[in-house]
Design goal:
The complex is a heterodimer of chains A (about 425) and B (about 150).
Chain A lengths: L2 H5 L15 H6 L4 H9 L2 H11 L11 H6 L12 E6 L8 H8 L1 H15 L3 E6 L4 H16 L15 E6 L9 H8 L23 E5 H13 L1 H6 L8 E8 L5 E6 L4 H8 L9 E5 L8 E2 L23 E6 L4 H15 L5 H18 L7 H11 L9 H15 L1 H10 L10
Helix pairs in contact in A: 3-7, 3-10, 4-7, 6-7, 7-10, 13-14, 13-16, 14-15, 15-16
Chain B lengths: L3 H10 L10 H12 L6 H8 L3 H8 L13 E6 L2 H5 L2 H12 L5 E2 L5 E6 L11 E3 L2 E3 L4 H11 L1
Parallel strand pairs in B: 1-3
Antiparallel strand pairs in B: 1-4, 2-3, 4-5
Helix pairs in contact in B: 1-2, 3-4
Classes of the chains: A alpha/beta (about 425), B alpha+beta (about 150).
Chain lengths: ~425, ~150
């Protein structure tokens, strides 16, 4: 373990000049030691147990325990082979850019994590499902994959063992819907990417009808360090009982927008005041979306909530991806909410009626209110949609996810909504129109 | 008709995949890279991948970055996610739109630029942001946009 990765396993080996470390540099920083330990000293089930013991929870937004997800995979000779392992690197949720930072900053870390996970799950093929717009990440990943094949960290009989793995990048063509893991399988199979009914669970019937496990980029990047240094070390990195560090980001009208790897459970106040340097001159904090576009707004009173999966619900929101976007006091919250809903409306795949019909309706109402053409009854229609597009009413989580920021906007910005409707205009200087 | 070069590139994209049809979006991107957009090549692409033309069409019409209409020499993807919105997306859009004389989905008269919206381009730390072809540009201001456009003329 080097000093850089001791407290910051995800970003500690980043180069100061922003370039990706070569294989040689990565190995010098302790890279591929986790894979060596897994392959030479551990059985697949032991790797899963270590990950389970670490408390690692999925960093793609849902926070499901990673080791538990792995434990659903049918194992041993009775299991059907081949099995697949996929990495969700689609990252099209507005506000999120952490996975790009990781893939560009240290592509070998992701590759090593995928090799270890594939070993633990007995998968023989692994795929990185990458969003099309991430050209720099693709180039760096492809170079690192070639280096890993040359170094026998991928390919046949890795490090002289019986374990073989093929890994490739699938570059998508731009649809948020593909970030939903069952939809991602459909996309990888070269079909129009609609979601799939569950059950059967992906671990039973995933990619090409075979057992598949899918994890997010940041989740996977934690795995090499957990295997190399142990679950107890990993738990010790955190401020709360949830293990590890988190790659938090903050954007909006703050002094220094950016990404920082910090102990899990860091508060939003610390992000804002210490790392982002506070608000820009002339702006005040109004609210924030804590973890991508599908999480509820939080207010100033919630700034001291610990940002982990268990604590964030105290603020009425979720950790999601931990990528914070700050709304300042001079930007119209109605316009912001419209922008959010317009995104979800455009990205709905149209598979199920509530989402296909409801989201454009919501976006049109919000646009009308922002333009000064709102009606008093609009608030009721929006509230009805929050219920009708809520959890359990739609085929997948796209629409219920969209309702989270809308629900909180109707609650926290009600005065603004009413003023727009009453005065028939946007009351902010930069109206977005 | 697909050229030999296009066919060869499509065959290359089949190298790593488990089943040929996984490469359908890659194959469409190959054609798009050569021709700018996808017009009558669907049946040929379908045949190479063991799919029906209708299936390939259902892919080509789903993804926002597969173009079914002609585009300009350079494609500008302007991020309109809520983070860029907060950081002044509207001013950026108005400047770009006025400067180019086109709205979203349109191509400039000289065929140089097509302007398209894109959801979160993953550059929230430098919002507002846009991509021109494969290059990412952040912290956009009207002056910066002017100088970027000059580079592509």
């Amino acid at each position: 373990m080097t000093a850089g990765t001791e407290r910051k396993p995800l970003t500690g080996a980043f180069r100061a000049d922003g370039a990706a470390p070569t294989l040689g540099e990565y190995r010098k920083a302790g890279g591929y030691e986790g894979l060596r330990r897994a392959l030479k000293e551990m059985k697949p089930g032991e790797v899963t147990k270590e990950v389970l013991a670490s408390g690692l929870r999925g960093r793609g937004g849902a926070g499901f325990p990673t080791g538990k997800k792995w434990s659903f995979m049918p194992m041993g000779e009775k299991a059907r082979h081949p099995k697949y392992y996929t990495c969700n690197a689609d990252e099209m949720e507005p506000g999120s850019f952490k996975d790009r930072v990781l893939m560009e900053g240290n592509p070998h870390l992701l590759i090593e994590g995928m090799a270890i996970a594939s070993y633990a799950l007995e998968a023989s093929t692994a795929v990185i499902f990458l969003r099309w717009a991430y050209h720099a990440a693709r180039k760096r990943l492809e170079r690192a994959i070639a280096e890993a094949y040359d170094g026998n960290f991928l390919g046949e009989n890795i490090m002289g063992t019986d374990f073989s793995l093929r890994l490739h990048v699938h570059s998508s063509a731009g649809r948020y819907m593909c970030g939903e893991e069952a939809t991602m399988m459909t996309a990888l199979e070269g079909r129009r990417p609609f979601p799939r009914a569950k059950p059967p669970h992906l671990s039973v019937c995933g990619l090409w009808g075979k057992s598949t496990v899918n994890n997010n980029v940041e989740t996977i990047c934690n795995v090499p360090h957990i295997v190399k240094n142990g679950a107890a070390w990993y738990k010790g990195l955190s401020r709360t009982k949830e293990g590890g560090t988190k790659l938090y980001t903050m954007a909006g009208r703050v002094q220094r927008p950016g990404a920082w790897e910090l102990p899990m459970g860091t508060t939003m106040r610390e992000l804002l005041e210490e790392h982002a340097g506070g608000m820009r001159e002339g702006y005040r904090f109004r609210a924030a979306i804590p973890g991508g576009a599908s999480t509820e707004f939080v207010l100033k009173g919630h700034l001291d909530t610990k940002m982990d999966f268990d604590s964030m619900p105290e603020s009425g929101s979720r950790l999601g991806t931990g990528t914070v976007v700050v709304l300042d006091d001079r930007t119209c919250p109605i316009g912001t909410t419209w922008s959010l809903m317009d995104f979800f409306s455009r990205e709905s795949c149209g598979w199920c009626t509530p989402c296909r019909e409801g989201l454009p309706w919501i976006a049109r109402i919000l646009e009308a209110i922002e333009r000064g053409e709102g009606e008093p009854g609009d608030m009721d229609i929006l509230r009805e949609h929050c219920r009708d597009l809520g959890s359990g009413r739609t085929f997948c989580f796209l629409a219920p996810g969209a309702m989270e920021p809308l629900r909180s906007a109707l609650r926290y910005f009600e005065d603004d909504f009413m003023r727009h409707i009453r005065e028939k205009r946007c009351t902010y200087g930069r109206a977005g129109l | 008709m697909l050229t030999e070069e296009e066919k060869e590139e499509i065959r290359k994209s089949l190298k790593d995949v488990v089943h040929k049809r996984e490469a359908v979006s890659d194959a469409l991107k190959v054609v798009q890279r050569h021709r700018g957009w996808i017009s009558g090549e669907l049946p040929e692409v379908a045949e190479m991948l063991g799919m029906s033309p209708a299936e390939v069409d259902s892919i080509a019409t789903f993804y926002s970055l597969i173009f079914r209409r002609p585009v300009g020499k350079h494609v500008i993807l302007l991020c309109d996610s809520f983070c860029c919105w907060i950081m002044g997306y509207r001013e950026v859009f108005e400047h770009l739109s006025t400067r180019l004389g086109v709205g979203f989905g349109e191509t400039t008269e000289d065929g140089q630029f097509t302007l398209l919206p894109v959801c979160c381009i993953g550059a929230c730390g430098v919002a507002p942001a846009m991509m021109v072809d494969e290059e990412l540009y952040g912290d956009l201001t009207p002056e910066k946009i002017d100088s970027i456009l000059e580079d592509y003329k």
